[in-house]
Amino acid sequence: MTPETEPMTESDETLPSPHSADGPRSRRAYIIQGLVALLVLVVAVFIARSFLQTAPIAGSRPTPEREARLVDVAVPQLQDYQPIITGWGTLIPSRSLSIQAQVSGAVEALSPRLEPGVTVEAGEQLLKLEDLSYLSAVTQAESALAEAEANLALEQGQQAIARREFELLTEDASARGGQSSLGEAENLVLRRPQLRIARAAVEAAEARLAEARLDLERATVKAPFDALVTGRSVALGSQVSTSTELARLVGVKTWWIEVLVGADRLGWLDTSPGGREPAQVQLSHPGVWRPGETRPGYVVRVLQELEAEGNLARVLVAVDDPLALQEEAFPGKREPQLLLGSFMRADIEGRRFSDVFVLEPRWLREGNSVWVMNDDDALEIRPVEVLYRDDNAVLISAGLDAGDRVITSRLSTPAEGMPLRTEAHTDSAASDGPPSVDRADSGAEATDAGVRAHG
């Protein structure tokens, strides 16, 4: 029996055999693809190696420089400086007087110049009281004195007679070989007590006459010194008694101002005695006088008393001829008159300092230091010794050298060694254009001369 075989289909005929002719071609394709991939890998490695060889070495790239800050500078110079110490005070009279009646009576006459605001001269008659009673008292005193002097003359004559009688009595007693036994009675015999009484009566009469004449003189009231009348209390016909106020006067030669200054400023005032010229003062009255008008004065002394509040000292300043009376005889410029009670400004000259650096207060930085632009155009924070400071200037005695460039503008974040530049350096630098910098706020324009010195 023969086995049956299945019929072969067309699809079975078309399947290639692994041992067919297409097998070598597939292997070659795989080989070609591998070679291409290897070639691509070699090229990539070569390119990467070339890139690494031509790249800059780490650390060899220069670090960019920090941008310099633009600042303003000033070059202060050693100079002499006299600070001005400013204070305020009220104008008061150095001499004031309330004229009171020393005798009683009715006001008989009044000077037309006895009015508030009018100046009078020393010895000028201001008013007069009725003086008939005082004239009569003077006459009576003169009569009493004449009588006492006559009695003294009579007594002196009686004493001469008594002395002669005493001498004769003594001679008679001696001729008889005896001795006078008068002893202590001699004074009575010679009328010495009577003579003393007569002389005392004359002295008493003279005193009464002097008093009567003084009362008569006091009935006429005169100005004791050159003065300004500030008040009058009587009128014509007023009846006054002893101690009644008649008028008020203030002297016009010199007025005072008690200037209030900080107690810490007293050390800079030259008020020591010894014949030296007193410290000079310039007085002004802002808001009342024209701008620039001043009156000269001088320091008298420092009053040894502090104000209860504010730790303020009082400096007594004097100004002569406050009403400018001496200027009336000369035409032209006339100094302004002072007004009592005015609140005035006083600029007092302080002690003079020699060879100091004078800076504006805003140039002094925190911790008594200044910012200096050194020779390398970098910021240097320099500590300095402050000798004196006020609202106008700061005096430096140590810490700066001649030629130092002090930075006058502000820096938001100052750091030691910070690079700096100035306008002059920027203008002279060769560049394609101005660099972009963080410019400091320079405030007011500074100059190489520093701040203006006083004196």
TrEMBL record:
One of its GO terms (molecular function) is efflux transmembrane transporter activity. This is Efflux RND transporter periplasmic adaptor subunit. InterPro entries: MdtA-like_C, RND_pump_MFP. GO terms for cellular component: efflux pump complex. Residues 366-412 form the Multidrug resistance protein MdtA-like C-terminal permuted SH3 domain. Keywords: Coiled coil, Membrane, Transmembrane, Transmembrane helix. The keyword Transferase does not apply. Residues 1-23, 411-455 are annotated as: Disordered. It comes from the Bacteria. The chain crosses the membrane at residues 30-52. Residues 138-165, 195-222 form a coiled coil.
